[in-house]
Amino acid sequence: MITGSMTDIRPQDQETLVGAEALATPAIAVHKLSAWFGAQRILYDIELLVPPRRVTAIIGPSGCGKTTFLRCLDRMHEVVPGARATGQVLLHKQDIYAPGVDPVLIRRRIGMVFQKPNPFPTMSIYDNVVAGLKLNGVRRRSLLDEVVERSLCQAALWPEVKDKLHKSSGVSLSGGEQQRLCIARALALEPEVLLMDEPCSALDPTATAKIEDLIHKLKRDYTVVIVTHNMQQAARVSSLTAFFYLGKLVECGPTTQIFERPLMQQTEDYITGKFG
Amino acid sequence: MKNVLQSSRSRYWWRRLKSSFMLILVGASVLVALTPLGLILYQLAAEGLRYLDWNFFTQLPHSPQFCLPGQPCTLVPAGMANAIVGSLTLVGLALLFSLPLGLLAGIYLAEFGSNRFGQAVRFTADLLNAAPSIVAGVFIYTLIVTGPLHLGFSAYAGGAALGILMVATITRSTEEMLRTVPHSLREAALALGVSRWKLTLRVVLRTALGGIVTGVMLAVARAAGETAPLLLTSLNNNFWPHSLSDPTPSLPYFIFYYATSPFKQWQQQAWAAALVLVGMILILNIIAKLLSRKRFARR
Known about the structure:
The structure holds 2 protein chains of 2 kinds. By secondary structure, chain A is an alpha/beta fold. Chain A has a single domain (6-119, 192-271), classed as Rossmann fold. Helix content of chain A is 37%, strand content 23%. In chain A, the strands form 2 sheets. In chain A, strands 6-7-8-3-9-10 form a 6-stranded mixed beta sheet, sandwiched between helices. A 4-stranded antiparallel beta sheet of chain A has the order 2-1-4-5, with helices on one face. In chain A, helix 7 crosses helix 9 (175-187) and helix 9 packs parallel to helix 10. The model of chain A is unreliable at 1-16 (pLDDT under 50). Chain B is mostly helical. Chain B has a single domain, classed as Orthogonal Bundle (MetI-like fold), CATH 1.10.3720.10. The A-B interface holds A 74, 76, 79, 81, 104-109, 111-112, 114, 116, 118-122, 124, 131-132, 135-136, 168-169, 171-172, 182, 185-186, 189 and B 114, 182, 184-185, 187-195, 198-199, 202-203, 206-207, 209, 294-299.
């Protein structure tokens, strides 16, 4: 049975589900967000509140628009020719889709980690971490040194690479290390929100466990939104889960509730593996 | 129970036979293609080294024999110092304007050129690449040598003609190389809040640098060996040109001129000049590769 659509869940319902104190000052508030690739509509009027300093997981079957949704949150969606988005995304009360807002400046405030690790092959480990700072004109050595150590420690990579910061390229590391390097690179800019697009899908179970550990630690200081096709992962790392299906937000709530007693039949069918 | 792939023994041997045949075919093709090339290089090295001496790099060209009335003719030390410098000057001048122009045009085509204008530019560049080089010579002759600028036969004219030939090659090879940079790297930089032009210059261009340098060196090698456009633009000079507006000597011109002359000494010098030209391009290539060497080898 297929019932419900996003219209059944309003932000006010969500508040009662997650706890009002967490959603009173959301890090990100999404209102009527729609997205297209050319003539093809990908997202339909998404409404979602992302609480600060928590991990919010986005789950759903392939092609449901979860990655597109994530990319809309830092205006990376529109980078693809023919792609566009409408609606409101309030980042700490500022609408990043308001006219006159420079997407480049927005992206400096929001970190993004991609599905496949993508360190810069021509840069050393050190330069990879501070790429965002250096490419934007920060040159003070003492500051850069400090940021490199802090970010790599936060990404739990410091002990492994501290002796080869300048000697080795970012791509000389293993896949899991590369992904943690990419996380360090995003953290170096001290982002207000960290977006992760299936960050473990290219990694083995050991590396995945390390990244999940890391996400647990990160939520003390950062707001994290993670897209995952792995439901166990969503259950392990997130406090909030949103279920997307066919471009619509079907249900959003505390992770335990979504996995144990979802409100929507569709959510239950997906969680129990009836489709997707 | 046999599966589909284990159908029969004769089929298996037939496949093995086809495989060996194809292997021999591609191997033989490589040999046939490379043999003439190897023979040319061998002959060039053998003949060139025989006639190459220190004078070649220090002396000016000279008539084959020096005869005074009533005395036996003597050989005078002769070389092509002026043509070596002349060739470097012409290629240098050509690079001076074709390199920035070609690089920028290549960046435009790769990053912003998916529109009609980009397609038109790409088509024009391909046409220019395929055009006979004498066309560039005629064009510059009517524009710079005579015509509105009227600079006469000069290094300027020669450099401009070679530059026109290089622009198209550099543009297209730069574009192709930039396109090989994975999309994920552009996204990584964009997500860090890096502006488009910085992303292009400091990430995309940097990543593709090795390939771009190779493309530029191919253009340089082609231009350095061109003779036809120089006949109409820089002409030749048996002495040191006084300035860039003088007719300028070049190695290809001397090779053409000496190789077709009836004098033994000149023909021998043409061999030496050809070897020096190839050597110069080789050295330039090595220097360029060293300069653009990747700091880190890819795993």
